[in-house]
Amino acid sequence: MYEILEKKEIAAKNVMYKIHAPHIAKKVQPGQFVVVRAFENGERVPLTPVTWNRKEGWITLVVFSRGKTTLRMNMELKEGDKILNIAGPLGNPAPMKRFGKILAIGMITGIVEVYPIAKAWQELGNEVITLHIVPEPMILLREELENAVSRHIVESFPLKEGMGMPEIFKELVTRGQAKVKELIEVEKPDLIFMVGPAGGQKAIFDVVKEYGVPMEVDLHPIMVDGTGMCGACRVTIGGEVKFACVDGPSFDAYEVNWEELIARSGFYTDLEKRAMEDYLAKLAQGGVQ
Amino acid sequence: MMAIIKERIPTPERLIEERLQGFMEVNLGYTFELALQEAQRCLQCNPAPCIQGCPVHIDIPGFIKKLRENKEDPKKAVKEALEVIWACNTLPAITGRVCPQEDQCEAPCVMGKVGEPINIGKLERFVADYAREQGIDEELLQEIIPKIEKKKEKVAIIGAGPAGLTCAAELAKDGYQVTIFEALHKPGGVLVYGIPEFRLPNDTIEKELEKLKKLGVEMKTDYIVGRTVTLDELLENYDAVFIGTGAGTPKLPSLPGINLNGIYSANEFLTRVNLMKAYAFPEYDTPIKIGKKVIVIGAGNTAMDAARTARRLGAEVVIAYRRGKEDITARIEEVEHAKEEGVTFEFFLSPMEFIGDENGRVKAVKFMKMKALEERDSKGKRKIVPTGDTTVLEADTVVIAIGKTTSKLLRMTMAKIEADEYGVIKVDEKLMTNIPGVFAGGDAIRGEATVILAMGDGRKAAKSIKEYLEKKANNT
Question: What region holds the Dihydroprymidine dehydrogenase domain (chain B) (predicted)?
């Protein structure tokens, strides 16, 4: 059981938790993730520690209300409550090398995962530019990134009434692609790194590959155990089947089979929607404590 | 001398229609009266071949005798029988349910030569269940615990599966301080993520594990050895280590379309249903997607478990196996149950390709038709060759149950441990690895085997660990 030491909403649908988890705080490296099971009937959710304190034994996580479990976490958990399970750190740490000039991109909540890696790369002597492609209400970690890297850019737009997910996504992609094109031409980065939804990563990669700039991506396929046991997170990399949880999460964008990844990521969308609607209906009836 | 009863006393089973409504246990187990009738059939051979057939050498005639001796006092009978079993096996409610008894203790049973062998597995299970229901195991535990002489040595166990749990229990009974490190949120390993509740209820596992906790075993879940804590750190803080990480990585054939949606490894499929209770979605948040037609590839116990699970989720299920009927590796009972529940079998079909629809979801599987030759392979199975003919079966879900390999995470994070090219850990006859004080057992050293063999290793390793620690204590 892991106590929530602090909880605060840091952007629309995004809640930051400071959690007592000494076994993870002691070991976690930038690029690694944890698997959280908050409730007895909740899913196992992979999340990224944003900051941590090895001495005091805590980590922070940002939870985006994306599905039922994450929405429940954000609605129901309070400071002082306990999270049932947090396992980790999992996945391989990001390579800590001098690449030169790095453009690190986070689309929507992808920036959460970019932050610890970008910060570490900057500290290592790289020149890091971070780009956050995001609708305005969901701008996150702006100040933190401004303090951590050479230059932080937010490419955002206000959400208009009646804008559905497809329109928002289209706007993110259009703006993101234009901005990345501009940054490649002006800044000439040696490496591009990106975290975000698979469709967004693919869209940005389509621009990057025109210029042939090396690109690394942290992938987020559907995951269950996170330790290489179930194979839910399998992705095809350079024609070979890899498990994102133990072989990744970072891969060469040029090697990723994007169509497959995008198709696999959307497999449960209808059921996720059903679970969410079911939960919201119960909530409306006052049926959930 | 009583007349020999050739047929075994059957155990009551849940009705088929009722089984398909949920995940309730299928076999209902003996009552005391039925168990006693079955126990009466035992010839009490000496030497007893059944003991040799049991990987942990339980004194089978011994516990059966205890049941018969005290037939007027069921509680006493069960307590004494349990005591005999516990001397070799602390988890009889589990082994009584999942051991392949027909290939082990029951195979050489003398009764089997004149009729049906003694139903040893079900008797073992009866003793365990009855003891639990009547609080007899608790009583026995309370008698044992005060007699345990606490030792100062600490042992770390990696993995809370059958091997690790058995090793832990044996060491705890001898007073060692044992800590189990488990990566998942629940201890049990394959028992909780892999074996469905209709065969082994999670509640039964939990009760068996409570016993271990009472014996003083500490269980740390959410701990991934190699990541959360390294092997070197364990070696600094513990006097010996046992690796019982099993064979957790699913084998997936390198065939076109393997990553289509709707194709599950048996591990993922069973984990979603057993561990995460996807059958109760959306009450439980983890979903599972199953269509009308499911093909399970493979014919081991895992394949039967997946097929029967899919039946309970409402699908039509076909098991496709590349060999013939005689080479099915699953237990007979499981195959029979699968058939009763409406699972159909297709033999001599080897998958060639998974065919998807425009959304990337599987819609069919193309198979090569195989045929068997008279010639046999190293495992004694008839060799199979392609006929050149192919066939296509429709499916909206495919479960791959063709086996597992050792944990990749283990290979990645414990490179100092000597292993073969498949990651199977090398051990000596004492089950010690190349690192002094580090022992291993179960599927981690076997590649892939059964629960009871893993338990046998756990027990053997516990003995070796004791010897190792005693020797170390004497040298210092």
Answer: 21-135
